[in-house]
Specification:
The complex is a heterodimer of chains A (413) and B (114). By secondary structure, chain A is of the alpha/beta class. Chain A is built from 11 helices and 18 strands. In chain A, strands 1, 2, 8, 9, 10, 11, 17 and 18 form an 8-stranded mixed β-sheet that branches. Chain A has an 8-stranded mixed β-sheet with strand order 5-6-4-13-14-15-12-16. Chain A has a two-stranded antiparallel ribbon with strand order 3-7. In chain A, a hairpin with a 4-residue loop joins strand 14 and strand 15. In chain A, 51% of the residues are buried. The chains are: A alpha/beta (413), B alpha+beta (114).
Chain lengths: 413, 114
């Protein structure tokens, strides 16, 4: 058996296949240039190539594929938001996520484990009832649950009435899930590259050339590239890149910190989130507890980890799951979140005619990856803004039509 | 009086202490971030579009920025120059370094509105 494998491995009949474009020179012109090789950029390229037949596409990535905030998020997939626009958008994304492994023929390790948000106050219960009603109306599995049900869903949760913030009720979201974030980016990038899209890593866009309101070319550290249009998908650097195109954005960048323990035996099935104590916890399929959601109190372009956040997150996690006091932390990290005033993304057209925005992804970017790929690719291919992302256009701020999802977001800012 | 400069040792480390121009060097947890410093537009004369940009849009620069901070315990608002990449505070100073005279925001006459 080992020899058989070795023979297979060394055989010329089965050469090792590259997942992605091997490094090569940039062409002089691409129909579409996507700035940012994260999950979103790869998803847009994939959909352009597979469903719209547009393959003269380059993904320009400053670092490496999926190495930015795609690698740093805590991989939560859910759609129990508050506004009609938000629920419609994220629930379509969850639906696409459920079929993603089949779509790619590549395992993204999707696990439908459900998500529980905890209410520690009457005000929270009221807002959960509101969310549950909106969610159910939109066909999302979401319901208000009592303490008894919570104990059954998560037997090891601290239900004591003597804690600092006793748990009063919960919002149970059966559609909640998790998936492997790297695999999502790799699956999209592989599918795109197989169809002729070029992924250029270590390629930083330094300047964007605009002539009479249209993008004509981008200047990179590896040379100048002419382009038919540009899509920017650079969560965490949206303001910086958009500024090169002369587009102001309503974004402030805050680091969001998370940490992970050593692996333990599986004892926690759903994802548990508490907006009151500012923490969310879930156990990965590897057994590690992911403890997330600590936002720094002021803007910063730096992904350092701080002791302050480790203390706050640990205290909150231990209040929900006292046994975590015994757990050892493996690592702590930060991602950069593009915080918009209404906690909704900015997608679609920009003041520059052929420059498309996929920005403002705060703490809700990973869960929107598939729907973002579908809708942004449709926009690029047809030049028409799909209805489902119309409410998220940049222009909404000029019309004072924000889509308020501040209460339905797990992390606070 | 010279603007208060934090000790060099503090500036080199990541931001854990901040020097309040009124109260001196204090733990960062005593302060509240108050947003980017930018000039105030006149709400009586500006267009709705410019007002929206003033309210919602940010420079969000990577590098040296000037911003508002408040020492929460004493409600003292002041300005800081901070590097948003290295998280170093270059200096903090009282608002009267910029605002040398009183700003009259004006009022809308309720009778002329109806």
């Amino acid at each position: 058996m080992p020899f058989g494998l070795l023979k297979y491995g060394l055989s010329r009949t089965y050469p090792a296949k590259h997942h992605f474009t091997p490094s090569k020179d940039l062409k002089r012109h691409y129909d579409v240039v996507i700035i940012g090789g994260g999950g979103h950029g790869a998803a847009i390229a994939y959909n352009l190539a597979k469903y719209h037949g547009i393959t003269k596409v380059a993904i320009l990535e400053k670092g490496y594929l999926g190495g930015g905030n795609t690698a740093r998020n805590t991989a939560v997939i859910r759609s129990n938001y508050l506004t009609e626009a938000g629920v419609k958008f994220y629930s379509e994304s969850v639906r696409l996520f459920n079929n993603l492994s089949n779509e790619f023929n590549y395992n993204v390790m999707m696990e439908n484990r459900g998500q529980l948000t905890l209410a520690h106050s009457d005000a929270a219960i009221r807002s959960f009832r509101w969310r549950a009603e909106v969610n159910q109306h939109m066909g999302v599995r979401s319901e208000l649950v009592d303490r008894q049900t919570i104990s059954e869903l998560v037997p090891n949760l601290n239900m004591s009435e003597d804690s600092r913030f006793p748990i009063l009720a919960g919002l149970w979201h059966a559609d909640g899930a998790t998936a492997r974030h790297d695999a999502v980016a790799w699956g999209y990038a592989k599918g795109a590259c197989d169809r002729g899209v070029e992924l250029h890593q270590l390629t930083e866009v330094e300047d964007i050339e605009i002539t009479s309101g249209r993008v004509t070319a981008v200047k990179t550290n590896r040379g100048r590239v002419e382009c038919g249009c540009v899509v920017q998908a650079v969560a965490g650097a949206s303001s910086i890149v958009a500024k090169k195109a002369g587009i102001p954005l309503p974004i402030h960048c805050y680091p969001l910190q998370a940490m992970v323990t050593q692996p333990y035996k599986p004892i926690l099935t759903p994802h548990v989130s508490s907006p009151q104590v500012h923490v969310y916890v879930h156990q990965t399929s590897r057994g590690e507890f992911v403890i997330g959601g600590g936002s720094d109190p002021y803007p910063l372009y730096n992904t350092r980890a701080t002791l302050d956040q480790r203390e706050t997150l640990s205290a909150a996690a231990m209040e929900l799951f006292p046994f975590l006091a015994q757990a050892r932390l493996l690592r702590q990290w930060a991602g950069t979140t593009d915080m918009t005033p209404d906690y909704s993304p900015i997608m679609g057209l920009s003041p520059v005619e052929n420059y498309y925005l996929d920005a403002g992804w705060g703490t809700w970017g990973f869960k929107a990856t598939p729907i973002c790929g579908v809708t942004m690719a449709e926009l690029v291919a047809t030049k028409k803004v799909p209805d489902i992302i119309k409410p998220f256009e940049l222009e909404r701020f000029y019309r004072f039509e924000q889509i308020n999802e501040a209460g339905a977001t797990a992390a606070s800012h | 009086m010279k603007p208060a400069l934090p000790p060099l040792a503090t500036r080199r480390r990541s931001l854990k202490l901040l020097t309040c121009p009124l109260n001196g060097s204090r733990n960062i947890s005593e302060f509240t971030y108050g947003g980017e410093y930018h000039t105030t537009v006149n709400h009586l004369t500006t267009s709705a579009r410019d007002w929206a940009e003033h309210v919602f849009f940010h420079d969000n620069a990577a590098g040296l920025v000037t911003e508002w901070w408040c020492h929460t315990a004493s409600s003292f608002w002041f300005l800081a120059e901070r590097n948003t990449i290295t998280d170093e505070v270059v200096r903090t100073f009282k608002a009267d370094k910029i605002y040398t005279q009183r700003i009259d925001f004006g009022t809308i006459n309720p009778e002329s509105q109806s």
